[in-house]
Write a structure and sequence with these properties.
single chain, about 700 residues, mainly beta, Porin, GMP Synthetase, Chain A, domain 3, 11 helices, Exopolysaccharide biosynthesis protein YbjH, YbjH
Length: about 700
C-alpha cells in the first residue's frame, strides 16, 4: 500500500471512531457496560490490556501498582456514563542514567461508543498518553461481551505501544521516539503505524474474587531495549480480590517473567461515605389554626406593638442561629415578611432556605401569608425567593419539587428595601480561627509527593454589608516543598511561579493573605468585587472584578483586572521589583447534569496573552472534578516540560465524609506541568462561585434537600 494511502486509511479509522463515538449516545438503548475492576494501568480492564467496560458513572478510582520495579499511580474519573479520563504517574528506575529514577506523567481518554445489547458487544475507543512523552502512547478499539452473567470476553485492536507485538497490519508511519519533554498533542500519530490484536477473558468466580487472563499486544520494546525487562511471553494472568465496595487487591503474572501487584480504591460522590448522614432533623411546620377557631391569633395588633415585633424578631433570630443561619435584616407587616439571611452551615443553599422557611412558618404571626427569603453573602444579595405560607404548611410532606415549583424567584434588590432593619448585632462582626493546613505538590518531575503541614491563624472583620477585612498567617511545622527541583527556565519568560521553592526555603512563618475587599451590586444583574492587599503567598496588589449573571440564568460573563507586585521571599510586607498588569474576560456556562464550562482570555502574570479552557462536573453535595488547559503565546520550548499549562482538580465536601452538615470543602489540584507561562494571580472570593451558589439554578438543582 503506498505511504499516502496508508496514512489516509489510518486517519479514516480515527475519523470513523470519533464520528461513531459522537453518535453513540444518541443511538444507545442499553445501559453502559460497567465494571469496577481495574487493570495495572488504572483503567477498567484485564491485567494490562483495556476492555470496553466503563466504571459506574461518577466513580473516582485511585490505583497503585508495582511490577518489575515499575511503579504506577493512576487516578481515573468517570466523567460521564460513557466517558472517562485518567492521569497516570509512572516511576521507572534506571530508565535513563544508571541509578536514577525516571518519572513519566500522562493522560488517557476513553469513550464507550457502543453499549452492550443481547447480541452486540460493548465497544470503546481509547487514547493512552495523549500529551505525554510517548513512552506509553497508544490508541485502541476494543469490544467486550458478557456470557453467563459472570464471564466477559474481550478482543481489541491496538496501535502504538499496544501495536508492538506481532502486528497484523500497518497504517502509515508512526514516530516511536520517546520525547524528553511531553505536553504536546501528537495527533498525526493516532491510529498510525503497526496494528496488533489483543484479548482476554475475566471470570467473576465469587462476589469478591475475579480471575483474568489476557493475550497482550505490548512487547515492552523500549524497556527491553534498555535491559529493564526480560520479556518472555505475551500471556498475562491476574487474580483480584475485593475487600468491600471500595478496596481491592490484585496479584499478576506478567510476560512470563515478572510479578505484579495492585491496590485499588474507589469512591463515588453519589454515595455518601457514611450513608445519609446524621445531621439534626428540621423543625416541623405546625399549620396555623383557622381564623374562626382562634380569632385572637389572627389579630394584627402586633404590627403596631414595638415589644411584640421585637419578640418575634428575637425568637426568629435565635431559632435561625440554632440552625447555623444568621439573620441579618428583617421587614414585617400584617401580611408579608422578608428576611435576609447568611447560611453558615449547609453546603446546599436549598437546604438552608428550607430550614429558614420552617423557622418563619413557625415563628411569624398568623396573619403573615407571604414569606420572602433573600440569601446573602457578606451582606450582598443575589436573588429573592417568595413562598405562600399556606403552601409551606400544606406541602411539608410532599416532594421538594412541589414547593419549589410554587416559589417565585426574583432579582435581589441592589439596595436594602425601605423599612427593612438590620438586627442589632448584624454589623460589624468578627470571626477568627486557628487550625492546621496541608499543602500538596503532587507528581512533579522528580518526586511523587511534596507536602507542607503546619498551623494557620486567621480571621475576618465584616465592617458593613459588602466590606470585609481578612487575613491569615501560616507557620510550617514540617514538609519538603523546599527540596523541589528547580524547573528549567527560559530567559524569554519572566519568573512568576517557578521560584516557588525559594518562598519555602526563606521562612517557616509568613503572611499568607491580608486584604480589604468590597463586594457590591452596582446595577441589576451586575456584581462587583474590589480587593487590595496581600492577595496570595507570592503576590500583593489590587484586583477588581465585574460579573454579569442574571439570577435565573445559566450564563455569566465576567471581567477582571489585577495590578500586582511580586512579594519578597521572607513572607512579610516586602516587595520585589517585578510588577505586572493582568486581566481576563471570562464566559461561564452551566450545562445540564452538573457539567460546566469556563473560557478565559487575556493577559497572564508573565505578560503573556492567551486563553484557558476549564471543564468540570459538579455535584449537588459539593463534590467537583475538573480539568483545564491554558495556551498562551509562550512558545513550547520556552515553557519547558509539558509545553503548556494543564492539570486536573477535585473538591471534596467535608459533609460527604463526616455525615455532619458543613460548608467546608477540601480542594486538591494536580498541575505537574506548571511553569511561568499561563499563570494567574490567586485571589480569594472571586465572584462566580459566591454568586452562583445562592442563585435560582443552583437552588433548584439541589432542591431535593429543601425539606431536609
Amino acid at each position: 500500500m503506498p505511504e499516502q494511502k496508508r496514512k489516509a486509511a489510518g486517519r479514516t479509522v480515527a475519523a470513523a471512531v470519533i464520528v461513531y463515538g459522537a453518535a453513540g449516545p444518541l443511538g444507545g438503548v442499553a445501559e453502559p457496560l460497567v465494571s469496577s475492576s481495574y487493570n495495572l494501568y488504572g483503567v477498567p480492564g484485564l491485567v494490562e490490556m483495556p476492555t470496553a467496560e466503563m466504571a459506574p458513572d461518577a466513580e473516582f478510582s485511585g490505583s497503585f501498582s508495582q511490577s518489575d520495579e515499575q511503579l504506577r499511580v493512576g487516578l481515573t474519573f468517570q466523567f460521564a456514563p460513557r466517558l472517562s479520563g485518567t492521569f497516570r504517574y509512572t516511576k521507572i528506575p534506571d530508565f535513563g542514567d544508571p541509578g536514577e529514577n525516571y518519572y513519566d506523567r500522562n493522560f488517557d481518554l476513553r469513550f464507550q461508543i457502543l453499549e452492550e445489547s443481547q447480541y452486540i458487544p460493548a465497544v470503546a475507543v481509547g487514547f493512552q498518553d495523549i500529551v505525554g512523552t510517548s513512552l506509553f502512547s497508544a490508541e485502541y478499539l476494543v469490544a467486550t461481551k458478557t456470557f453467563f452473567d459472570d464471564v466477559r470476553v474481550t478482543a481489541g485492536l491496538g496501535w502504538g505501544r499496544l501495536g508492538s507485538r506481532n502486528p497484523v497490519a500497518e497504517f502509515g508511519s508512526r514516530d516511536f521516539v520517546v520525547r524528553e519533554e511531553g505536553g504536546e498533542f501528537n495527533a498525526s500519530n493516532w491510529f498510525q503505524g503497526p496494528m496488533a490484536i489483543f484479548g482476554g477473558v475475566s471470570w467473576r468466580a465469587t462476589d469478591k474474587l475475579t480471575l483474568k487472563a489476557e493475550y497482550s499486544s505490548d512487547a515492552y520494546e523500549e524497556e527491553t531495549r534498555r535491559g529493564l525487562v526480560d520479556y518472555q511471553s505475551p500471556w498475562n494472568l491476574a487474580a483480584e480480590y475485593r475487600f468491600n465496595d471500595g478496596v481491592s487487591l490484585s496479584a499478576a503474572s506478567l510476560y512470563g517473567e515478572a510479578f505484579g501487584a495492585q491496590l485499588n480504591f474507589t469512591l463515588n460522590p453519589k454515595r455518601p461515605l457514611l450513608g445519609p448522614g446524621n445531621e439534626p432533623g428540621p423543625l416541623p411546620i405546625i399549620p396555623r389554626p383557622s381564623r374562626s377557631a382562634e380569632p385572637l391569633e389572627w389579630s394584627t395588633d402586633w404590627v403596631t406593638s414595638t415589644s411584640e415585633r421585637a419578640s418575634v424578631e428575637s425568637s426568629i433570630s435565635k431559632a435561625l442561629a440554632d440552625e447555623g443561619i444568621r439573620l441579618e435584616a428583617i421587614q414585617m407587616d400584617a401580611n408579608r415578611a422578608e428576611v435576609r439571611v447568611q447560611n453558615n452551615r449547609y453546603y446546599s443553599e436549598a437546604q438552608a432556605i428550607g430550614r429558614t422557611a420552617r423557622v418563619l412558618a413557625l415563628g411569624l404571626p398568623a396573619t403573615v401569608e407571604s414569606v420572602t427569603i433573600t440569601p446573602v453573602t457578606d451582606g450582598v444579595p443575589a436573588n429573592r425567593v417568595t413562598f405562600r405560607r399556606t403552601d409551606l404548611e400544606r406541602l411539608e410532606n410532599s416532594a421538594s419539587k412541589e414547593i419549589l415549583s410554587r416559589a417565585v424567584f426574583t432579582e435581589g434588590q441592589t439596595r436594602r428595601p425601605q423599612g427593612m432593619e438590620f438586627v442589632d448585632d448584624a454589623y460589624p462582626r468578627a470571626n477568627w480561627f486557628l487550625g492546621t493546613y496541608l499543602g500538596f505538590g503532587l507528581f512533579d518531575p522528580d518526586e511523587p509527593v511534596r507536602a507542607d503541614f503546619g498551623l494557620r491563624l486567621g480571621g475576618s472583620l465584616t465592617l458593613a454589608p459588602g466590606f470585609v477585612a481578612s487575613g491569615s498567617i501560616k507557620h510550617r511545622l514540617l514538609g519538603n516543598t523546599e527540596e523541589a527541583t528547580a524547573k528549567e527556565r527560559s530567559d524569554k519568560v519572566p519568573v512568576v511561579r517557578t521560584d516557588f521553592r525559594e518562598y519555602s526555603r526563606a521562612t517557616d512563618t509568613f503572611i499568607d493573605t491580608m486584604t480589604l475587599a468590597h463586594f457590591g451590586r452596582p446595577a441589576p444583574e451586575l456584581h462587583s468585587r474590589l480587593t487590595a492587599g496581600i492577595l496570595e503567598r507570592m503576590y500583593s496588589g489590587v484586583s477588581g472584578e465585574l460579573l454579569w449573571k442574571p439570577f435565573d440564568s445559566n450564563l455569566a460573563i465576567g471581567g477582571e483586572v489585577n495590578y500586582v507586585y511580586k512579594r519578597a521571599y521572607d513572607g512579610g510586607f516586602g516587595l520585589q521589583d517585578y510588577n505586572v498588569l493582568t486581566g481576563h474576560g471570562t464566559v461561564y456556562y452551566e450545562m445540564p447534569k452538573g457539567y460546566n464550562v469556563q473560557v478565559d482570555g487575556g493577559r497572564y502574570l508573565a505578560g503573556d496573552y492567551g486563553g484557558t479552557l476549564r471543564l468540570e462536573r459538579r455535584f449537588d453535595n459539593g463534590w467537583k472534578f475538573g480539568a483545564y488547559a491554558t495556551m498562551t503565546d509562550v512558545a513550547a520550548e520556552d515553557f519547558g516540560d509539558g509545553s503548556f499549562d494543564k492539570g486536573i482538580y477535585m473538591q471534596l465536601p467535608l459533609r460527604w465524609a463526616t455525615g455532619q452538615p458543613s460548608k467546608s470543602v477540601h480542594r486538591m489540584s494536580i498541575s505537574p506541568f506548571t511553569s511561568d507561562g499561563g499563570q494567574k494571580v490567586r485571589v480569594d472570593d472571586r465572584l462566580y462561585e459566591r454568586i452562583r451558589r445562592i442563585q435560582q439554578p443552583d437552588i433548584e438543582g439541589s432542591g431535593g434537600r429543601f425539606w431536609r
